[in-house]
Design a protein that fits this description.
heterodimer, A: alpha+beta, Protein Transport Mog1p, Chain A, 8-stranded antiparallel beta sheet, 3-stranded antiparallel beta sheet, 11 strands, 17% helix, 38% strand, B: mainly alpha, Serine Threonine Protein Phosphatase 5, Tetratricopeptide repeat, 3 strands, 3% strand
Chain lengths: 185, 392
């Protein structure tokens, strides 16, 4: 039912349990179960997966973001400009960059960081941020877990979001395994 | 109960009486007396009752929404300002919800639900300005503008719009003080009713025009940075609201006519807002809206920069993060600390600005101070690693 919120012309492709080329070859990973890939890309080298619809679980991949580029595709420079990645950013700056990109992209006005700690993304040192956010008119607490790392001067991000109630825990172990084992190109 | 026509006629009469004349200030003030409050309007027929029920349902959802800021002290304060603005008999008709939303906005629904955005509280410089906005929204309610629109159109566009807002439509570029599609005349009427509340309140009427002028200037700053055309200067034929410049003009004339004195209560306002200000401003900074954010801060601080303002300036520049910004950020945090700020964010920001500028050792020192002050911050693990990395 939650899938109804996406445009009618959206296409889907099943992601099988096998090594999968992600975000136009920016990353490779092998999921432990099947997912669905949305045909609309969140960024030039980005990709979006879900199991049960975006309201229930969503996994976004962003690869090879160069200095001067935003994480999400900037859809309106004049009305909703997105902050850009700089290769001299500190780990805490990456977290703030993600927070702003995510919030502007999804029109979220309440975003609170639960924890920010060092972590690896596909073997590269970076950050892990757990956060909660709310959609207006919605009593559910939604939780996100993002990992960000810079490899060869380019930023890589994997972000997982789900309602805290049931859905977040249901897929988080599989998602963390993807974040641990993803191969960054 | 007084009919709508009679009520309108009474206001109209009062408006005429309120025209500037060769009379004493005292007489002018008496001319600005408000009509007696007849109680909140109750739905009278089946259509209206259905309309009310939909609003009640939306309010119920709002009640449980995580969007609402649940802070009893702040809540009590905003309720108090509304009562001061419109009078104790009227204000109890409103149920206020403070919403965590960085935009410059407030609204009121026909069943008495009133939404006040944290972005509004952040931008107001004093109690009188907040009172003028709350009074404007209450003016729509008292004049039953939503209901009039509903009667004319027999459709629920306002509800749809309200629901859309609650569902997270981006408001950062809507610079109206109300989300409802009232007509231009209704906006003007609400403005002038609002001015009448102010005229008989403890606040000066001038405050209303000052809010609009700042709204224009803020958007000009944003337009310049984003290289888009400036708005808000002229009312175009299809616009549902008078342009802010026009509003500022007639509100200033109304204030002149009221010739009232009053107390802005700026000190009380900044005292109440002090603990919330940085958090509200962080939500604004998250919107990647540098020029407008800078404008907001400069307007707030005016000629009396307090330590909290220096911390805010540090955050503003650090988050943009150009080499020049990092210098300004460092200076701002240092100034806040020298002037006695108690906000731990000053040391965090200073540490991060120094580290990014390449001074890792001094940066680590400031971050260590921050970690001593807030040992269980959400980012403790990350900062500890950065400190260790700098000391190697």
């Amino acid at each position: 039912m939650a899938l109804l919120s996406v445009p009618a012309n959206a296409g889907w492709k099943r992601i099988e349990v096998e090594e999968t080329k992600i975000a136009k070859g920016a990353m490779y990973a092998t999921p432990a179960s099947e997912w669905n890939r949305w045909s609309r890309r969140p960024a030039r080298r980005g990709e979006t997966w879900t199991k049960d619809g975006f309201q229930l679980n969503r996994l976004d991949f962003f690869g090879q973001i160069a200095d001067g580029e935003s994480i999400y595709k900037e859809r309106s420079k004049k009305e909703k400009p997105l902050p850009k990645f700089r290769s001299d950013m500190l780990p805490t700056d990456l977290a703030e960059l993600f927070e702003a990109n995510f919030s502007i992209e999804h029109n979220i006005t309440q975003f609170d960081v639960r924890s920010l700690e060092p972590a690896q993304l596909g073997g590269v040192a970076g950050v892990r941020m757990v956060y909660e956010y709310a959609l207006p008119n919605d009593a559910l607490t939604r939780v996100g877990e993002a990992r960000l790392a810079v490899s060869a001067g380019q930023l890589y991000v994997i972000n997982y979001t789900a309602p805290e109630l049931h859905y977040f825990d249901a897929s988080v172990d599989e998602v963390r395994a993807i974040m641990d084992n993803v191969e960054l190109k | 109960m007084m009919g709508r026509a009679a009520f309108g006629a009474m206001l109209l009469a009062a408006t005429v009486l309120g025209a500037p004349a060769a009379s004493s200030a005292q007489e002018d003030r008496e001319n600005f007396l408000l009509p007696p409050w007849t109680g909140a309007y109750e739905p009278e027929n089946i259509d209206e009752r259905g309309f009310w029920r939909e609003w009640d349902e939306l309010e119920t959802r709002l009640k449980h929404s995580k969007y609402v800021v649940r802070d009893p002290a702040l809540q009590a304060y905003v309720e108090d300002v509304l009562c001061e603005a419109v009078g104790n008999d009227r204000c109890t008709a409103a149920r206020i919800y403070i919403l965590r939303e960085n935009s410059f906005n407030a609204w009121m629904a026909p069943n008495g639900t009133m939404g006040v955005h944290t972005g509004l509280l952040m931008r107001m410089r004093n109690e009188a300005e907040l009172a003028s906005v709350l009074g404007h929204e209450f003016g729509h309610f008292e004049k039953r503008h939503t209901l009039q629109g509903f009667k004319q159109q027999r459709r629920t566009s306002d509800i749809v719009m309200w629901a859309a807002i609650l569902a997270g439509i981006d408001l950062t570029n809507i610079y109206t003080l109300t989300i409802f599609e009232y007509g231009r005349e209704q906006e003007r009427e609400a403005d002038l009713v609002g001015a009448r509340y102010l005229a008989v309140s403890p606040y000066p009427s001038r405050a209303a025009a000052e809010v609009w002028i700042r709204l224009i200037d803020e958007d000009d700053a944003r337009a310049e940075e984003r290289k888009r055309r400036k708005r808000n200067r002229h009312t175009r034929w299809l616009d549902s609201h008078p342009a802010p410049l026009e509003r500022a003009g007639y509100l200033a004339r109304a204030a002149e006519a009221a010739a009232d004195e009053g107390d802005y209560r700026a000190d009380r306002y900044s005292e109440v807002m002090e603990p919330y200000l940085l958090g509200f401003y962080e939500d604004q900074l998250q919107r990647n809206d540098f020029a407008a954010s800078k404008f907001i801060l400069e307007q707030l601080a005016g000629e009396y920069w307090r330590p909290i303002h220096w911390v805010m300036q540090g955050e503003l520049h650090r988050k943009r993060g150009t080499p020049r910004d990092l210098v300004t950020a460092e200076e701002s945090y240092r100034r806040a600390i020298n002037e006695g700020t108690q906000r731990p964010e000053a040391w965090r920001g200073l540490g991060l600005a120094l580290m990014r500028s390449g001074d890792r050792e001094s940066g680590a020192e400031a971050l260590t101070t921050y970690l001593e002050k807030v040992p269980d911050a959400p980012d403790t693990a990350m900062l500890e690693m950065m400190v260790r990395g700098a000391q190697k």
